[in-house]
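Let's inspect one such protein example.
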Amino acid sequence: MCDDIARAFYTRDHAFDLFGGSNAKADTEFLQGISKELKKIEDRLKAKAGLYAQVEYQLKKDARITPSPFGPCPLLQTPQPFEQLQGAIGSVQRSREHVGAKWRHAHEHDTDLRGRRVTEKEWLAGVSLPLVFEMHFLTRAGRSRNKAGKPIGPMVKFIGATMIELGLAYSDESIVRAYSLRAPLRKERDALPGILRQI
């Protein structure tokens, strides 16, 4: 159980950032810089037509393009190596832009998240620790209230005590709120172990 609690604690800050959405903007800017540098290199080589032709030939030779099993298609032309590299960089850049946009705005449109991104404490109390509880106590996590209306139950006590030990004290009321609000994320993670949604 200690290992699972430790794993939940040490992944709390990026478990919901599986595809690095928080770094996507920096990745995009980095790729834009690489693309500009590559264009400058290509322009410099083109100024030396003979050398450019040799470099292009060598790049094509090294690529060892496998012929199609259906034979050559006159409608398709093999792009030049520099164009291929620029195309690959552009494709990755667009992908990172999409991930970054999803990271910044998906929580605004996802009704399960009610307009705000999951916090680290919410992730622990509402997703990771309830699953640890179920795995080790072999019972479904749940919560109830006493006659005074205060949250009670073994799961609430387990999560509350664990959060205190982790130095992230969280009230019983907050635990119950996180457990209820983040149920869709917990169900998805429970059904697809190891695969977390990018939000």
Summary: The two ends are 27 Å apart (CA to CA). Helices lie at 2-10, 24-46, 49-63, 81-109, 120-137, 154-165, 172-181, 183-191. The longest helix spans residues 81-109.
